[in-house]
Amino acid sequence: MYRIGQLMPQLPIAMNVSLWVLVIFMLWTIAVVVLLLIVRIRHLAMGGSIKDFAIPSDDNLLWRLFRVQSNLIENLPLYIGTVFLLTVRGSTGIAIDLLVSFYILLRLLHSIIHMIGANPNLRVLCLVGQFGCLVSLIALAIFDVVPAVAK
User: Fold this and answer.
1) Is residue 10 part of a domain?
2) Domain of 51, in residue numbers
């Protein structure tokens, strides 16, 4: 809420690191969906069954890609909400830039680890790091703890 005499922010808001990371997140999600579609179409063209899509197996690329895509769709709203909060509050700075950069790095790594079927414990580490970044970003936006000089 704006106080009397306080100017509203100028729209449109310039692109910042948080918004660029959102663009990367969306493009990565679209790329995974396209990859999943290609693998599904190829599977069907080679005589596979639609029923195979619903068989949960970490040995099955179809299942792993489906889980990666689902996971991205589940996590995208969390990041969108965080970026919205940061943007509305006008929260910027090196700490925020580093946290969102680390977040997207962990998000991409999480997806790749899942796609190739690597050790699930690595995914858990990435997930813990991502949640740590999100909680830190939300705290920075809510409590406006980034010094004005750093903004």
Assistant:
1) no
2) 17-143
- What is the spatial distance between Cα 146 and Cα 91, in angstroms, rounded to a whole number? 7
* pLDDT digit string, tens, across residues 116-136: 999 999 999 999 999 999 999
**Mean pLDDT of the region 21-29:** 97
Contacts of residue 45, defined as CB under 8 A and 6 or more positions apart, other chains included, come to: none
Indicate whether 148 pLDDT > 60. Answer: no
User: What CATH number corresponds to the domain at position 132?
Assistant: 1.20.120.550
CA 80 to chain centre: 8
Q: Which residue carries 């970044």 as its tokens?
A: 133
Does residue 7 fall inside a structural domain?
A: no
Return the structure tokens found at 35: 């990859």
pTM of the model as a whole:
0.84
- Residue with the two structure tokens 């996590």: 75
The pair of three-digit structure tokens given for residue 2, joined into one six-digit string: 């704006």
* Structural domain contains residue 111: yes
